[in-house]
């Protein structure tokens, strides 16, 4: 198993686990590798060193030389990404995907024509604005496609 440090074009850093380097390249060529935060498909492999667990001794973080530039996500950024993924997974788990029928279903719920429940789906900007004008509570929330299916 090969663990690769990956980064999308929006600078989200994440790990990907692949059977081999060739497996990563094959999946990337087929468009199967995407950012778990934003769903972006422009993924690059970052330089990384092998990680070795040699016991309970914790390695100290290496300091950068003056003038050196790094693109590693900071601890707060990683915490924020993890929190966003947790919220997105919870939303997916606790809502029904109504797809392109979102505006129609939201109105039915709002006007009491169907039972109240959490839904998610797609709506055009005009549809969303119309819902808001009618007093229907909606929140635009881009969810990566990877979160909508089973996670491995």
Topology (elements, then pairings):
Elements (H helix, E strand, L loop, with lengths): L1 E7 L4 E6 L2 H9 L13 E3 L29 H20 L1 E4 L2 H9 L8 E3 L3 H9 L19
Parallel strand pairs: 4-5
Antiparallel strand pairs: 1-2, 1-3
Strand content: 15-25%
Number of strands: 5
Lateral strand order in the biggest sheet: 2-1-3
Q: What is the rounded distance between the termini? A: 14 Å
> Mean pLDDT, as a whole number?
80
The general outline is: elongated
Q: How would you explain this protein's 3D organization?
A:
The protein has 152 residues and is an alpha+beta fold. It has 2 domains: 1-48 and 72-94, no CATH class; 96-137, no CATH class. 31% of the residues lie in helices and 15% in strands. It has helices at residues 21-29, 75-94, 102-110, 125-133, and strands at residues 2-8, 13-18, 43-45, 96-99, 119-121. The strands form 2 sheets. A 3-stranded antiparallel beta sheet has the order 2-1-3. A two-stranded parallel ribbon has the order 4-5. The longest helix is centred in the middle third of the chain and has 20 residues, at 75-94. 9% of the residues are buried. Mean pLDDT is 80; it is low at 59-71.
Short account of what is shown:
With 152 residues, the protein is an alpha+beta fold. It contains four helices and five strands. It has two domains: 1-48 and 72-94, no CATH class; 96-137, no CATH class.
Notable characteristics:
two-stranded parallel sheet, elongated, 4 helices, 152 residues, alpha+beta
């Amino acid at each position: 198993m090969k663990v690769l440090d990956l980064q999308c074009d929006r600078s989200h850093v994440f790990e990907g686990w692949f059977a081999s380097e060739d497996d990563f390249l094959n999946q990337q060529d087929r468009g199967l590798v995407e950012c778990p935060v934003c769903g972006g498909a422009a993924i690059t492999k970052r330089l990384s060193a092998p990680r070795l667990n040699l016991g309970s001794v914790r390695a100290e973080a290496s300091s950068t030389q003056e003038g050196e530039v790094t693109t590693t996500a900071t601890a707060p950024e990683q915490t924020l990404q993890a929190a966003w993924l947790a919220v997105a997974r919870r939303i997916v788990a606790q809502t029904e995907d109504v797809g392109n029928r979102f505006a129609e279903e939201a109105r039915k719920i709002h006007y009491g024509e169907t039972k109240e429940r959490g839904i998610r789906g797609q709506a055009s900007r005009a549809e969303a604005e119309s819902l808001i004008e009618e007093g229907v509570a909606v929140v635009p929330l881009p969810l990566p496609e990877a979160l909508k299916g089973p996670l491995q």
